[in-house]
Amino acid sequence: MSRHFAIPVAALLFIAGFGSIAAFSHDSATTTSATTTTIPYERAQAGWTVASRSGRGVMVDYRNEVVGTTVFRVLRLRARTTLLDWHVGSIDPPTGAAKVPAIARSSIDWTSEGLAGVVAVFNGGFKKAAKAGGAVVDGVTLDPLVKGDMTVAINAHGHWSMGVWGNPTFPAKGFDAVTYRQNLGPLVEHSKTNPAATAANWEGWGSPLNHNPLTPRTGLGMDAQGNLIFVATMDHIEVAQVAQALVDTGVVEGMELDINPFWPILGAATAPLHAPGVLAVQLSGSQHDASIYETGWQRDFFVAMAEPNSWTCSWTTRAATGPTPRLVRTGSGCRGTTGTTTSTVATSTTTTSTISSTTTSAG
User: Cα-flanking dihedrals φ and ψ of residue 51, to 5°?
Assistant: First the structure.
């Protein structure tokens, strides 16, 4: 198991720019008061292949992005149609005596997340031992948050926001985040690669195997529309190529996630999964099928789910009997009690788990 190290203090201060990083968020709090006639359908976009749709439109789409000779698999979660959870692993980050709710433990919680329907999964960040930032899950602090680190925040509605911890505008007032995941300083700032992401500063972006800065890498960012974009490649690359892939796919603010051959994992379903099933869109060359998250994994990861078909209904969490939160639907457009989300795309029946990433665009 590889070990990573955080950016040295001097480099971190150079990177951080505490007050200059804009905070971007996906917060669809207005969806419960708007009508379907006033909210545009989330449409497909040229150059992207749709993985899944719902009554609101596109939920997840993907493409390949080429930087130099490296092909990145790019997965995009639409902010208006999906929601997000973050899970701890069975080994890392260590939880000790912390009471981590079932919805955030080391496998997809089908009793709760399965209600909404899982549409995508992807890996998290460095190990806790790397001291690359803090983590909070459903209000439980696993490691203190670090000023100057790029941070993904998630609130009880599963909406996300991204910004630098310590910036007074992040998270935005009223966002009420319950989960945070940090991983080093910002990799992309204002749609540009951070100047510190250079070959000479490779040790500041993780400890690769055999001290070779060329290694498989992943990254995460938000675009100007609030969509969440994950990029990954199994090619052996420098961190600047991750930043470029994020920028080329429209990311405004972004961060590096995990690195080294054993950790990059990506999966997307063609329809919301309410029980373990096929994640047809994956990362070519990954050492793991993304279904590993369906039964349990040792490292942290993210799970994306489908919002209800109605714009006047949304998912939120509430404390059930005992410490385990449950997803429940709220809003005037909710119907019934089960909350099953349907999709206009049929469930995949393919037996091949990996879709090859060898072209510039999957579309």
Answer: -90, -45
DSSP class of residue 104 equals G
Q: How far apart, in whole angstroms, are the C-alpha atoms of residue 139 and residue 323? A: 12
E-strand stretches of 68-182:
70-77, 82-87, 118-123, 135-137, 140-143, 150-155, 160-164, 177-182
What number of other Cβ atoms are within 10 A of residue 318's Cβ?
Answer: 10
What is the per-residue pLDDT across 98-122, written as a single tens digit (0 to 9) for each? 989 888 999 999 999 999 999 999 9
The dihedral through the CA atoms of 300, 293, 346, 83 has a sign that is negative
**63 in helix, strand or coil?**
strand
Q: Residue 356 and residue 280: Cα distance in Å, rounded?
A: 11
Amino acid at 114: G
CB 240 within 8 A of CB 205: no
How far from the centroid of its chain's Cα atoms is residue 131's Cα? 20
- Where does the chain have alpha helices with state H? 9-16, 113-116, 239-248, 292-295
Q: How far apart are CA 361 and CA 363, in angstroms?
A: 5
- What is the value of pTM for the model shown? 0.85
Question: Dihedral, CA atoms, 76, 79, 80, 82, nearest 10 degrees?
Answer: 70
Stretch among 29-38, 176-185, 192-201 having the lowest mean pLDDT: 29-38
